UniProtKB/TrEMBL annotation:
GO terms for molecular function: DNA binding. Pfam families: DUF2063. This is DNA-binding domain-containing protein. Residues 11-90 form the Putative DNA-binding domain.
Length: 250
């Protein structure tokens, strides 16, 4: 980032901070307009980043949440899409959590999907797969898409996410549809990654989740096979290639 751009972003952040925290007099209508515009922009931003959450809690609740979030997390860049990371923690500490604890995991899921969808996709270097034939698995490492993110949840967040996305603009899902999803078992392990055509979510089992985590932790193929001796590596790597999870072997 150039020095000029960094200074501009600092200026924008400071300006937003000054506008939001200023204690305006009742006759300072100009400042009040700026503050109101800031609140509305914040709410619209959260609605774009967390569309499923907005369906679940409603517009008024999103306005309250955006107002509270501005008190603890002001935008620090020129892009509102970078703002909103602390919303799951805010919900966890809010009155919503007691009756709707799953909302925290839904927001974690939406933030992860939002972040992954903004990252670049890197095509597989298929020639690097020849390293598997060399037999030096101790020195062979799997490079995953930089966007790839692993999430866990004790709630069916993927099902809730899919249901609400399918009902967008239709008044939302029915009570029965929500109950059906909440009662539908999920593995609770998810991999979100940028693909060649779109961002995709894959439910995986516990062993596959731990395997991918092991790759992220920097384990070699040999070390992974030592930790997970019963894991079907051949089947997994074929599946990982289909899902665009791998960029190369090194």
């Amino acid at each position: 980032m150039s020095g000029v751009k960094a200074r501009a972003m600092d200026y924008q952040s400071q300006l937003l901070s000054d506008i939001y925290r200023a204690k305006s007099a009742h006759d300072d209508k100009g400042l009040q307009i700026y503050q109101n515009n800031l609140h509305m922009t914040a709410m619209r931003s959260l609605s774009v980043t967390y569309p499923v959450l907005e369906q679940m809690v409603g517009e008024q609740a999103m306005f309250v949440l955006s107002h509270r979030l501005l008190q603890r997390e002001l935008p620090d860049s020129g892009d509102w899409a970078d703002w909103g990371r602390q919303l799951p923690e805010l919900i966890h500490n809010s009155e919503l959590y007691a009756e709707h604890p799953y909302l925290v995991d839904v927001t974690h899921f939406e933030w992860a999907f939002h972040q992954v969808s903004r990252k670049a996709f890197y095509a597989l270097d298929s020639a690097s797969l020849n390293r598997l034939a060399d037999g030096a698995l101790e020195q062979t490492f799997i490079a995953l898409q930089p966007s790839l993110t692993c999430l866990r949840s004790s709630y069916p967040v993927h099902g809730l996410w899919l249901l609400h996305r399918s009902k967008a603009g239709q008044g939302g899902p029915s009570k029965q549809q929500l109950e059906d999803v909440m009662n539908e078992p999920e593995t609770g392990c998810y991999v979100i990654a940028q693909g060649a055509k779109n961002t995709h979510v894959t439910q995986v089992n516990e062993e596959e989740f731990n395997w991918v985590q092991g790759i992220s932790d920097g384990l070699s193929v040999a070390a992974l096979l030592d930790v997970f001796p019963a894991f079907d590596f051949a089947a997994w790597i074929a599946s990982a290639i289909r899902h665009d999870w791998i960029t190369h072997l090194e």
